[in-house]
Fold GDP-fucose protein O-fucosyltransferase.
Amino acid sequence: MAWIQSRKLWVFCLCVTATVFLIVTLQVVVELGKFERKKFKDSSFQDGLYVEEKTMDLNPFPQEALALHGKNTLGVGSYPILLWWSPLTGETGRLGQCGADTCFFTINRSLQHHRMTKAFLFYGTDFNVDSLPLPRSAHHDWALLHEESPKNNYKLFHKPVITLFNHTATFSRHSHLPLTTQYLESVEVLKSQRYVVPLKSKNNLRKRLAPLVYVQSDCDPPSDRDSYVRELMTYIEVDSYGECLRNKDLPEQLRSPATMDADGFYRIIAQYKFILAFENAVCDDYITEKFWRPLKLGVVPVYYGSPSISDWLPSNRSAILVSEFAHPKELASFIRQLDYDDQLYETYMEWKLKGEISNHRLLTTLRERKWGVQDITQDNYIDAFECMVCGKVWENIRLQKQGLPLKRWKAEAMHLSCPEPTTFTFSSPVPLAGHGSSLREIWIPSFQQSKREAQALRWLVDRNKNFSSQEFWALVFKA
Ligand SMILES: *[C@@H]1O[C@H](CO)[C@@H](O)[C@H](O)[C@H]1NC(C)=O
Ligand SMILES: *[C@@H]1O[C@H](CO)[C@@H](O)[C@H](O)[C@H]1NC(C)=O
Ligand SMILES: *[C@@H]1O[C@H](CO)[C@@H](O)[C@H](O)[C@H]1NC(C)=O
Ligand SMILES: *[C@@H]1O[C@H](CO)[C@@H](O)[C@H](O)[C@H]1NC(C)=O
């Protein structure tokens, strides 16, 4: 276990260095607080340093294991090989310890046909129809990690494709390793009073601030949130600091998207009574920092996104759900009511001020998850995903040794499913030119095409021969 900790510390140092490098030079972080995504990118920086890390760490392993990392590859074959087909980790080869089980994790595709290769690991956003590991043998498990928005790869969200996988880790509570709370560090962070601005001060601040704040830089995503907010703005004041519908500027030093998790930024938005917390896509259990951040800061989220959000609220009075209002006009009038009525507003803050979380599903999920969020003392969810697959692979190895029938695992459609994007239809007196067009022109057709892609992909994979992207596209556009 000690070497895992030391590896984590080492990875942490690298992450810090790499993060600074990224922020300063690359500006790759496009959206609010995408820490996890950033972590993935950073992990590829480990690659060049890998060998040094291993020579320090490997003492607890038997001699043949040590050989894995030298020129000599004798040791490959002593442990099941789990091959990352998406080079997410950037690791050319590492022995990972998962409880009592050891697996060899690698991105080295030349091990595709190795007899010990038991599973292929895919990262959803990078899942590419080109060069899939086909033909697939009966003992080749496929495992999918996809915690991100469907907008990053719609074809995975259809039954023909998601059911290709044996093991899943997605934002859905139904997946084998549910990542629904991937943006929530802990119960303590949720209860924390650190940023809470008392209502009296918020009322004073209302002289120069709107009741609502909106900060979004990924404009016109599939959820059509900007259309809603645009309409809402005709009924109630909204301070909008991001690229989308901007009407107010952040201080100079906070303008980079990388500062979305900076203390200064938190202090600014914590002054508001309400935050418009709108996801970029509408899927059950797809819940991001947009929802948790206001709750952490002591601001009431006005939430639009996961239809099942009620299952995840800290208490039954902790957020305002857009879906409960027929029109933005009604939502605006409800917010006004809360803005004028301090007692009513405080009913939404009671759980926070008392530190009472009454939602048992939320508490249990946080307590039982086997991974941490921005916590170097715990595995992250990539480690947890690797270990879930390693554990399943070992389960079958043991059954096989005893001559028992093997276990079967298969993803269900609901492990990753989102409805087709829809546009808001308001009877706005002034039709706004151009607005909503990206949704109608891009997201809806792209979702529809993704259904054809999913069918074509399924057919090609079931045929169990490798195929080229030309073959794939020819099939997609055939009908
Ligand atoms: C990939 O694996 C092959 C076969 O074991 C080995 O010869 C090669 O050096 C490995 N490549 C890397 C980059 O580790
Ligand atoms: C919210 O929860 C409280 C106590 O947990 C309960 O008394 C109240 O009826 C609930 N309200 C709603 C609207 O469900
Ligand atoms: C994995 O899925 C494939 C395709 O559905 C299936 O043939 C295979 O038996 C599954 N493996 C396990 C271990 O469940
Ligand atoms: C399929 O794989 C074989 C052997 O690796 C290769 O020669 C062939 O070009 C591949 N075919 C396609 C369509 O990618």
Summary: The two ends are 55 Å apart (CA to CA). Confidence is low (pLDDT under 50) at residues 1-6, 13-74. Residues 206 and 272 are 8 Å apart (CA to CA). Residues 437-463 form the longest helix (27 residues).
